[in-house]
Amino acid sequence: MGKSKRVVLFDTLIEKLNTKELLAVLGHELGHFSHGDIWKNIGLMGLLLFIAFYLFGHLPDSLFNEMAVIPEAGVQIAMLMLLLPLLSFVFTPFMSAVSRHNEYAADVFGSKMGGKENLVSALMKLVTENKSFPKSHPLVIFFYHTHPPVLERLKELGFDVSKAS
């Protein structure tokens, strides 16, 4: 954000990947910039916060009456703090889906910049290095994964995952 832009490549990443793989990973990150993912996420979060504040600002008085409290600012803030996790739980799958979509699009950008085979190779090295699980249950993915599982990403890049054993 702002006038100057930076992409940070950690020394561990530089040590693990060759130059072509680094270009593919850098291309992936530049894909996020090119597609305006940061600005889209800020706008989406702003919209979701607006919806949350609107909902909590318009809670029915009957709710407060049932709880035997007066609907003043302090009580409404307490309600916001108590009920916001529920609303967040409802929004989480939507936010995760948007994030996964952005990751797929950034993978396409990175594969064009650095080559599909180099991005595939880099992803395989990174998943091995991070010791992350290549597969997850679809419900866990639906709710919590901001990045698609690596096997899905490899499939989208045209890699035959049955070869990766």
Question: Can you lay out the helices and strands and say which pair or pack?
Answer:
Layout: H1 11-16, H2 19-34, H3 37-57, H4 61-66, H5 73-114, H6 116-130, H7 138-144, H8 150-156
Helix pairs in contact: 2-5, 2-6, 3-5, 5-6, 5-7
Structure, explained:
By secondary structure, the chain is mainly α. The chain has one domain. The protein has helices at 11-16, 19-34, 37-57, 61-66, 73-114, 116-130, 138-144, 150-156. The radius of gyration is 21 Å and the shape is elongated.
- Unreliable spans are none
Count of spatially separate domains:
1
Order of helical and strand elements: HHHHHHHH
| Helical segment count | 8
Gyration radius over CA: 21 Å
Concise overview:
This protein is mainly α. It has one domain (11-163).
